[in-house]
Design goal:
Length: 138
Amino acid sequence: MVNKAILIGRLGSDPDIRYTPDGVMVTNFNIATDEIRKDKNGERIQKTEWHRIVTFGKLAEICGSYLTKGRLVFIEGRIQTRSWEDKDGVRRSTTEIVATNMQMLEAKGQGRVQQTPSEEGPPPFLGADSLPEDDVPF
């Protein structure tokens, strides 16, 4: 069985940072993806879908430090649905992507990051099983 999500989208707000009782950092943020198509009359229709993302540990630290509202990111992870009871006793549920990989696809306020030989250094992506920028499968 496979449970894998791959998304490229923009952050809707800065990540929310929390800690588990054991001291593990957790970040939560939303990203928007767009679907653009034409209706039967040839009119362009754009639909935005929002996705809840959660990261833990080192990846959460990286996301909390480097991600900001509007950044374009590649997210890879698994889909998880969880439920709980709120303070009023109402049953709630959410579906989210538990990210295992995150790649920043552009520098702050710019298009995709292009490194010149004089700017060599670590690539602008971080996380387990990260893909090099030119190998993003889209």
